[in-house]
Amino acid sequence: DGGITQSPKYLFRKEGQNVTLSCEQNLNHDAMYWYRQDPGQGLRLIYYSQIVNDFQKGDIAEGYSVSREKKESFPLTVTSAQKNPTAFYLCASSRELYGYTFGSGTRLTVV
Amino acid sequence: KNEVEQSPQNLTAQEEEFITINCSYSVGISALHWLQQHPGGGIVSLFMLSSGKKKHGRLIATINIQEKHSSLHITASHPRDSAVYICAVTGSARQLTFGSGTQLTVLP
Lengths: 111, 108
Known about the structure:
The complex is a heterodimer of chains A (about 110) and B (about 110). Chain A has about 110 residues and is mainly beta. Chain A has no helices and eleven strands.
């Protein structure tokens, strides 16, 4: 079945360390997105990519980096520059007129 | 002011009750989405609509473009419907703008 796979589901990181969250889709969607969710708040866009080898900053890109070397993959790196990285991270993909598909999320905790 | 406002923020209902969740938006949109988020965190897309009404099982979504308003209805609610329901809109840049969600609890 087609879908989006995010891994890992739970991730713990020490302060000062970079960590990479994986997002893979087999839906042949062109666009992929990373969102951050904090308790009681709506999802906020971190980065998005509408085509391979191209990506754009979203509303809260500071302290994050991405790559889009393959259509299927859009990994997110949370760098040590991100001041408050503990959050729930969701990956999504879309194809025009077909709506969005979301992953199951990664809960990152900085310890 | 948020671009997408949902009401209510929290809703508790008894099983079999008819439920309505409202969404108002302040920007021009190409589509409106209703999403469901279960306690584990994963999100499922329920509806994408740009006009009129859509129905899937016990769920009905309506949109009024002139009034910039959408509603999600659940008929004959069941405890398994308990989740966070999120309204989101797609603007001209094809980006999603999300509401803060409605926490629905259906009691047996």
